[in-house]
Amino acid sequence: MKEEDRLAAIIYRMEEEVVIVPRGAFIRMYNGQVVRNKSFEGLTCAEASKLLSYFHCRPPVNMSNKPLAERAKLDKAIDFLDTIEDDNPEGCWVIQFERGGNLVLVKSLLWIGYVLYHLPGTNKYGSIYVGTGEYNIDLPFMI
């Protein structure tokens, strides 16, 4: 396998497993199209401290496994993606507040070096990966 192929495979796997967005950053239109939510005003500090306020930026995988009663409570325009709350192993995400609560960092412990940043109360968020491209297979033993 060429190095370019290995790199492409790692990037694809990381995009599937760790690229996340705050709840409400994207909405699903009535026709099923997913678009950036222009009226997204950010999470509150209370919302930003919960794992269920962050969604994987990929088609849902675990949504069909949720009980029907739980799915009925969801807002279908906003809650159409998988939350990171259900990720395995439990504890693979860390939420950290910086600058007196004005900055939230959500860090992956599976892909060390991936960080989502969000400024609560604003529409500013983004993510970055600065790492070696190695999956942390030891995490279940570290938790």
From TrEMBL:
Cited InterPro entries: RSP9 (IPR055316)
Annotated Gene Ontology cellular component terms: axoneme; kinocilium
TM stretches of this protein: none
One record GO biological process: axoneme assembly
Species of provenance: Schistosoma mattheei
PANTHER family: MITOCHONDRIAL RIBOSOMAL PROTEIN S18, RADIAL SPOKE HEAD PROTEIN 9 HOMOLOG
Name of the protein: Radial spoke head protein 9 homolog
Keyword Cytoplasm in annotation: yes
Chief location of this protein within or outside the cell: other
Similarity remark: Belongs to the flagellar radial spoke RSP9 family.
